[in-house]
Fold this sequence. Notes:
Blueprint: E1 12-15, E2 19-24, E3 27-32, E4 38-41, H1 43-51, H2 58-69, H3 73-89, E5 93-96
Antiparallel strand pairs: 1-5, 2-3, 3-4
Amino acid sequence: MLDHESPAVPSARRRTDGISSMRVGDEVFVLNDTDGFYLNLNATAGFVWDELTEWRSLDELVAAACSRFSADPAAVRDDVTALLEVLRERGAVDVQP
């Protein structure tokens, strides 16, 4: 089996403690209680955020989002990778190598 993980994106991640979130309709607002940084996530990104309550690999997140939204796997992978990078940079997700 080939490893589809990008070297830039660690193999597992989950939400970081101390990060608050609130769903409003299809959107999710994510707030870092420490530095006040917040994100407004659309429905797809909000779905990925909801999946991050437990350790998840990129492949697991992409498969779940493709199943939920019947979307192109390559496009979903690109979008999820970009989202995870923003969340990692802002300290909103913990990562395991």
